[in-house]
Amino acid sequence: MKIGELARRTGLSLDTIRYYERIGLLPPADRNTARQRDYDPSILTWIAFLRRLKTTGMPIRDMVRYAALRAQGEETAAERGALLRHHRDAVQAHVDELHACLAVLDTKIAGYAGTTREDVNHDPDDQRPGPAPDAQRRR
Amino acid sequence: MKIGELARRTGLSLDTIRYYERIGLLPPADRNTARQRDYDPSILTWIAFLRRLKTTGMPIRDMVRYAALRAQGEETAAERGALLRHHRDAVQAHVDELHACLAVLDTKIAGYAGTTREDVNHDPDDQRPGPAPDAQRRR
DNA sequence: CTAGGTGCTGGAGCGCACTCCAGGTCAAGC
DNA sequence: GCTTGACCTGGAGTGCGCTCCAGCACCTAG
Asked: Residue B40 — left, alpha, or beta (φ > 0 → left; ψ -120 to 50 → alpha)?
């Protein structure tokens, strides 16, 4: 598989794939006779996993660390496991935080629900809006 | 309340507070006789809300949009409500995605659990690791 | 009267994660 | 033989969200 097809199949851009290789997220690709990158389909699994790490907010430098450990082989398994457990906990904590935020958002949205009616608080934004409601105070 | 105290109470840096004001996230602060910013405590509520928007991944430009609408007063309430509902849905979608990722992470971590034993797959990372497990292939 | 602390402004700089570009190679189709 | 298109490299540029800095003003304590 050449880089163009890999890009289509992963949704990554050509530049991003090459960038990921440069920084060590992807292993140095094999090359065909024309020195073009020639990927084994197994790279798709790895990229899918990288995408999950990214989705869950892992910074690239940590992904690079994980990738480096993985490239070193079997004896780094314990460290990789620890890294993932640590990340899992961070993600879980973030999810909890998001749930709390969602509750606040829903409350606020409920405050806006009666919009243009007068049966709810004037401005759900704050108790003492100070300079807010008198508006047009743009300098 | 002067900017230093606000910084202590919010955990934002002085620079961040001034930056937020510059870009319109915070309303232009009142000034005391020495032209120093003098905050009403109600700003704390607003900043707490901004922090939630940020935690939930709203880009600053969208927060600025929301802040601008809010500063325009009552007649933008509907639009603000729509904006929040839209964001809430995005956050919910992201949370769902995170749950899926957590499941994958847990599976992978389980694969690492038997680390240094041989009763689990050699390398939980992929089915056909290609150049991975033979290691030290750093150029 | 002076020193230290806190605040002010405008503007430069930074780390991150890409993204774009110029100038080139190579293989295949017309 | 020539064009087209996919790919190559090294390096510069971008947008975001701050963060830092120089040089100055002001207030309070000693």
From this structure: beta
